[in-house]
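Protocol step 6 of 9: fold each sequence in the batch and record its structure tokens directly after the sequence line. For illustration, a two-sequence batch is reproduced in full.

Sequence one:
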Amino acid sequence: MELVESMQFVFVANILLGAHSLRLPPTISSMFQSEYFLDRSCTLSLRCQGLSDAMSYRWYQNGLEIKETTGITTNKTTGELHVLISNTCSNQNLGIFYCTAENKYGSTVSPFVKISGPVLELFDMSQRSEVVVCTENDHCQLKCTGKPKCEPHAACDVTWYQGSGTQRIISSSESTAIDLEGNLHFLNVSEISGNKTYACGIWNERIKKLVKGNSMTLNIIDSTAAPLPRAIYHSRSKAHLGKSAVLQCLFSGILVSEIKWENPKGYYITTNDKYRIGPYGRQLQVMNITYNDEGYYSCHASNLTQTPFLNVTSPPIFPENNRSFLTKTITIPSEDFVDLKCDAMTSPMEAAPVVAQWMKNGILIRSFQDFAIQLLDNNRVLRIYRAYFEKGGAFQCVTENSEGIAVANFLLEYENVKVQRSSFYITISFTAAGLLIVLGIVGGKGFCSKIARSNYMSAMSPSTDSHRYDTPQSS
């Protein structure tokens, strides 16, 4: 008997939840990256996916629905977006894209994504080749000037070359280092490095392309003074929440000892799951960044100290799920109003995100002059009045900061006491009766069969109670 009752409850609950979910706009399950770059063939494909029945999809570029255009195609049935830019990815700034998933109850909006073409421009060659003079056994820096734009940043690498070609690469060693800005440092330069030409180059791995800058000649002058260790460079790095970051310290001088690192709380760092110390101790990699990792780190060598700073930031994040994409169901009480709050947050050290726009079923709301909706609290709150606004669907807030864009979907239900009680009564009666009839047939003429027949006849018999509630209406 307990098993039968449990089956009854599960069966009826599933039917009720299923019927309930069908009355809402679809939920988008796609989780895109915040930015995409075209590949070597100048193509990119994305797919928008949702959870619901009878859906169609639309893609938007820079706020306008994508029609049949050269280079960009969409499929309204499958949700696919295909970008193909001819020639050499010449359209570098494709812009901001998002998709909508739609059913008869409304539309929801996907995360916003930026799509760009990979870029590697040429060095600024307007400056003449220069001569750099350095003192033997001292620190010597060659600056990589006129650096071109290179994207995506993770695919770009600065390399230094000796001579006129690209065969002789200057590698990091005990006496040479390349800082995070691309400059070459001879930590204790020797005569053997002098009277030679050097040039920096940038390689873009995405498009397999190299560009090289102006060459410079290095001259070394003799010195009889003993070199002293000194601090010459430390980084100021930025990293997104959950990603990794690299900090760097450089010291010059022959007698520079091992570099030791401390975190912002003053604890010495060793290589583990959180931290990795690179060759010669010059670089510290911090993994799985949290807000607690922000602050000044310390690197120590030969009684010298430097303090590189790590800035932890992120696109706006919603506190409900700690992500930049949120879908939330909201019930509006009968003859009342509801406030939709766009409470995205960002790094504790940064200004609050700006609410850029509100949307209804994926379409920008351009007017707030009627009585149905109001903007409050510097656009962070959208108030919807039930008495004036009876149509369901979904509203979206789009909020942004310097690091990216966040989207929240609010799926609206309109509560109606009469409709809900009637729907509950009819569903319970018929689904429970139907289930018990089936169980009765399987179990023979036992107790369950009698209950099933009794409930079925009660549900079908007219009574004064059968007219108590209004017939449910489709929203």
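Sequence two, same batch, same settings:
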Amino acid sequence: MPNTLQCQEDETIKFECNTFNLETRKQLHTHLIRPVGIDDDSDAFEEWASKIVRVEFPSPLLETGIEIIDVPGFSKSDQASLFSIRKQFFNVYKPTGILFCYPNTFSDAEVLAVKDLNESLPGNWSKTSEYFFFANTKTSKSEVATNNNIGQGEDVPLELIDSHSVNCFSKVKSSSISTPMCVDQRRFGIVNALDFIKQPRSVENRYIFKQFINRLIRWMIRLFQCQSIIISKIIFQECHFMTIKVISFSKYIGNDKDFGRMLQEANVLVDTYSKNLGDAVSKIIDTIPSVIKSAFAQESNQLIIQSAHDNITNTSNNVNDPKPMKYIIEDIIKLALNPIDRLINNEIHSLTDILLYKNSDIVQELLNNAMEANTSDSVHKKDVVHHLFGSIKSAISPYEGIMRHFKEPKMVWSEFNTQIRKYPETISIRTMKRNAVQVVQGNISRFKVHIKRHHDILGHIVRASTTLNNNIDTSLPKYISLFNDMYALRSHLLLPFDLKVDRSKVVARGTIGPVYKGSFRNKSFMVQVVNFAELPLSYQFELTKQVMSGYNVAKGIPIIPLHSMFKQHCHQQQQQQQNGVGDIEEWLLVYKKQSPLLPYLEKNISTMSITQSMTMINQLAKALEYLQDESDPTHYRFRLESIYINPSTKDIYLAKFGYVEST
């Protein structure tokens, strides 16, 4: 499959006129119209269909740099070759968006065409819900008139055109492509360009064309906006990651005592991991006897046991024949323990992910490096986890136990049946737990050796460097500044609207600035205004900490999430109020609007139920737990004034910006 567009015929034809005429149409006809008789020659057809014809028009739209590509449509007879041609083309030339044009009826053929086109797009192409636009290109004034029994030449009410557009959209929406394609009326339009060209002064034609162009332009703008958001998000996340890493590293390089604390914290995390894994495996082991007993009681497994009985009866002379036991082990016990294996495997993976990836600080970076060193060059981290799982699985295996249990002097059916009923209770759960814990501790001990080795290597590098502290002092403010700028840019891309802030009354005061009422397109928010000129340098970092802990709050966490952040410069009138200080930089942190809890309690506490009170306490505890996990165990000015409530749902939220100033 080619990775570049190969130019087979470099032929350029220039037209002297700027308008279409008969000569222009003839020239384009030669290159664009399907040649007569080509259907009988598959090779010739594929060669013709693979050619790319570039046509340049003196159009204001195309002067912006937009390129419109018309790819071969869908045809059942040519589907195989056309699909291959489109796929090769899209692998080289990735589109920004897809405009799918179809006639009035959205039939099964159009459904097949959309699916075929969608499947020909490259697998690594970043699809968004916005990438497809549907255009009904055969809608005309005359068609709407005919559908509504209006005579030709008479005026057609514009509301009938809107109604026709809705009907056309509903046919696309109700088709089988609706769900996977995220069909939306914002990305749908009706148009008939030829009607508009023939009768541009017609009110109805102008209305249809204007509606279509407006939606098309909005869709195109949204496509480029989505691309910018994706790029800015990648840069923003990288800034977030590097800021946390630099901040984390700076905590440990001040002196040997601080640096030694890094190793201590790493060992604490590993010991916690070891204990949690041991406890989890022990709980799973406790269930093994009941799992096997339930398996023996199943009707299908009773048939297996009966088969083992028959085998014993037929081989009564060989009382120690292990074959019947093999049937039971392989067909009953091993199958019954498969869910146990999966539970243990899931616990190992889950706890290992928490150990290595929960935070992005330097301690977990040390653990990751040690984990990689604990493997050979050809072995990945997942293989270390796999080895730990295999070791635990071997340690708790009851297979040898059952073989020993059934090696009795006499293998008669009565004894055999009794032993099966007794077997689960004879498993030594305590031995299994002890063996499993020993396996975990053995692996952890080896892991700690690698942690210490990497800590020593890192310490040698830190002590040998004469510029490390200066580099951190220089890079940290730059990363913080870039992080803030990228988040503000991303917010502006997502919400390109004017934010209105009512500064007549402060509703709360935070450590880094006051909070006012604000609005976006008639929606109310709380807006914290942060003025860097009024903040000491040490407090400027608090803005970044507040953004980091607020912008990605998971749903269900009772913390007021940061909705967006904007950067602006004060107007000249505001600058004069600041005693002549120019270029004052402000950051606007936008939060979802909630109501202060304290006034609600003063009014309703006497009628609150115990259930509501306990729910509030639980939500508050969950919020504090979240702050603890986010490495922010203290809450500035934490008191009742820091808690807000949604009056409709009665859910409470902890605010990150400060306390309530007035109500």
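Proceed to step 7 once all outputs are recorded. Observation for sequence two: The chain is about 55% helix and 10% strand.
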